[in-house]
Queue: 2 jobs
Job 1
Amino acid sequence: MRRVLDLFNEPGTIDEMGLASLRDGFSEALFPGTSTIQTRLRYVLFVPWIYKRLEAAKTSSADVAAAGRRAETALIRPLRDSNEDGIIGTRAGASLARLPSSVYWYALARWGVFQHDRSRAWYHSNFGRLAGQNLSATVAADDPGVMDLHRPSWHPRLPTPPDDFPAGISFDLTQEEAEFVEGRIEERCAGTLLAHLASGVGKMVEGPPWAQPAARNSGPEVREVVELARRFSLHVEGVPLLYNLLLAERRHAINGSDDDEARIISYQGEISNWTEHEAEEGAFNPDELWVFAARHRVRVRALQRRFVESWSARIAEIVGATRSGSGRVGGDLQLRRLVAARERELKGRRSRLDDIARLLDWNGAAGVGRMNFRWHRVRALLNDLHRGLEA
């Protein structure tokens, strides 16, 4: 599980300034059903294969959680024997805290592999009835609740597992499996960048999601979301850079560390470089962000909105007149006060700028990196898919 948790260290994943709801809103709009802790695509088949076996064995609702855990942790050894990367639980083994079914459940439901828009807990609670129910169509039609239970749990075209599953398994999808997953994504996630990328075998290039040919060749609604995500990610990239500059200065004032002095110089340079890139763009308009949030039901708190608007307004003032501002952002008192106040709003007395113990424990780079909206994980999943389609 440690290897999965390490994924949280990817750039742009840690949220220090309370922007996670906007980041996650873009992530879901671009790549629905994905998450930062998913590793390999074939887990979206492993999990239903396990549950279909438990259904066939008439496992009770009381026993399904324990039986599922045994079956899911039994995946670890054969995957480890095949020297695969991205194994969930390779270190934790049977004591694994977060099972693959938990990690991938939202994908299973969002992509329509699991045919009820319900939680794994709901599935477990109704497992006996879902597995054994054989009601007539007449009875089912009279009761929407019964109809929900009467519907098969898993998509009828779900490919069958290998005869010796899970022995000898790997993360390599067969062509049939890849075509099934591609079809689920294209049907259930139509009009998203994920759906366009799913069918784009051999067409992914190095770089962020907005650099992909599928992003440029998609419809206007997808391009609009991709462009706003790109612009937002650049615009707020300066926030954690300034925050870490403040931390480096504060800690250097306490202990005079040469390392922190070097960090101060480094962050000043990074902020100057970022400001030059920001100055090449038109002024960021937060109103477009709030329209996106409303359309995609992203909750934006009042303090979060005020912070973004204050940051945007001041950055526009600094870089707007000269289309530069390099070197001014890092020393701007208004921006410094804004970022410091934001940390105190979020963390109270645990703010690193106020809590000396937490400041001394700072690793030198808290939450830095441009938001990539799960792209590193999504790219790995798509690579698995495309290899299967080409098999």
Note: Residues 2-14+31-219+375-389 form one domain.
Job 2
Amino acid sequence: MAKHKQKQEQENEEAVMSLTGHLKELRNRILIVIAVLFAGLLICFNYAGPIVNLLTEQGTELGYQFVYLSPQALFMQYIKIALIGAVCLGSPVILYEIWAFIRPGLERRENFVFFFAMVAGLFFFILGAGFAYKIALPFMLYFFINVNASTTIVASISIESYLSFIMTIFITFGTVFEMPVATVILTQLGLMRPEWMVKGRSVVIVVIFIVAAVITPPDVVSQIMIAVPMLLLYQLSIGLCRIFRKRKMAGNEDESEEEEAED
């Protein structure tokens, strides 16, 4: 009885030590993330003015006039840009710290899926934001200013609303470009099959061209420039779904054979 009680106390102490170790590791990783974000904030705030000029350049060329409506408004936008820039610059370190913390508790396949989701997700989000800035945004700004060309109202826009609009576009396209990553994750979880995506492709094509027609000037070239990358992205998602579906099925067969051999 005494030995059983002593063994139970030892197990409880080991559990407490394990929990304490995890909490210390979590604290250290959080401190690293905070330090990276703070350094990124200082760097990005130093370049906040040029970044704002870069973001407003396309609108200025089209005739937009940007104003700020309170003494602190522009400074607050610099802070906002610096915070967003710090997160963007620090995202590789942040994602690595998250992965390194949870990696010991993941199985090999789960570890691969999580690591793939982080790396590929970051890549496709940057790709989507770049696509928005270089292609989608100029078309949208051109469309919105020409819709109101027949009026006598001057397009004097507050810098707050313009930058919020820009960030919304970046986040929207960055999220849309996560389609292949989401497809791989859903496939690995058994929630997506390539035949389902092929079956719904005609509906997706119609939706993509409707969206492209709404956000672009009324000419075919502009609509195609927006729609075609989206269609290619969807086709890429189908291809990845097929590849990872086969890998998943092959892995399940290998596990079944190993279990039968052990029995």
Note: The first helix runs from residue 2 to 46.
